Amino acid sequence: MNLIDAELVNPYSVDPRKEFPHVPEHQENWTEYHYFFAYDKDADIGMSLHIGRLVEDLSIWRGILYVFMPGDEVLVHKCVGRGEHARGFNAGPLAITCVEPMQLWTIDFDGAAHSTTGKSLCRDVLRDGVDEVIKLHIQFEAASPFFSLDPSRIDGLAAMGWAHDHHEQIHTIKGEIVRGGEAYRLCGMGIRDHSSGPRDTGKPFGGVFFNALFPSGKAVSFTMVKTKTYDGSYGYLFWGDGSPLEQIRVIESEPINDAATPLGSVHPDVAEGSPRFRVVLGTSRGEQVMEVERRRSIATTYVPPHHEVAGTDYARPEAAQQTKTVALVTWDGEVGTCQLDRYVRIKTLKR
Question: What's the superkingdom here (predicted)?
Answer without folding.
Answer: Bacteria
